[in-house]
Design goal:
CATH class of the largest domain: Alpha Beta
Strand order of the largest sheet: 2-1-5-3-4
Number of domains: 2
Number of strands: 5
């Protein structure tokens, strides 16, 4: 009696299985590949947007799905506004819309028709640092710097809105801006100094 070779049986099984799979799957794969190559993407409709950014009125045509963050960074090169979590949690993308701090990753650009936007690039005037920018430098209120523009935009709003009366009130207001380097103490020092100085911000 010829001994049973389990290796040959297993090999034969895999060969037959592969042949069956090729027989049934190959046509569908070819069809899908052909279909994918034949698809012509439809043009994305553009919508008109009138918006003022850092004092300059812009009349644009944009993709309706564009967030104000992507409009600023990708289309208009205002790269001071940083892209962080894109879920409204970290605060790196904070800007001012009509004077109020806003997380730009959570706003569609089209929802800001005729609004006034201020980014970190719009704070300084005539090549002079804004008082809050100067205070952040003085107090070394950043390390890697990635969150700094969002921190400064929130800090300016904190003072303007009267929430910088005490260190505790500053900390409470600023708790939606995350600094992964842990420069919180220095950030509070900078905001407190500007608030007490009475500088126009």
């Amino acid at each position: 009696m010829k001994p049973c070779n389990q290796g040959d049986g297993r090999r034969s099984f895999f060969i037959k299985s592969a042949s069956i799979a090729a027989l049934y799957l190959t046509p569908s794969i070819l069809v899908k590949t052909f279909a994918a190559e034949s698809i012509v993407p439809l043009p994305i409709p553009k919508e008109k947007l009138s918006i003022t950014i850092n004092g300059k009125l812009l009349n644009l045509e944009i993709d309706a799905r564009t967030t104000i963050l992507n409009l600023l960074r990708e289309d208009l090169s205002f790269t001071g506004t940083k892209k962080g979590c894109e879920m409204g949690q970290c605060g790196a993308c904070t800007i001012h819309i009509n004077g109020k701090r806003t997380k730009s990753c959570m706003q569609l650009a089209l929802s800001n028709q005729n609004n006034k936007i201020t980014t970190i690039e719009g704070l300084s005037e005539d090549n002079q640092l804004h008082p809050m920018q100067a205070a952040f430098l003085k107090h070394d209120a950043f390390q890697c710097g990635y969150c700094t523009s969002g921190q400064i935009m929130s800090a300016v709003a904190c003072v303007r809105e009267g929430n910088a009366k005490t260190r505790t009130s500053i900390q409470t207001y600023m708790d939606t801006n995350i600094c992964r380097c842990g420069a919180y103490q220095n950030i509070v020092d900078a905001i407190e100094e500007v608030a007490k100085s009475g500088a126009k911000i």
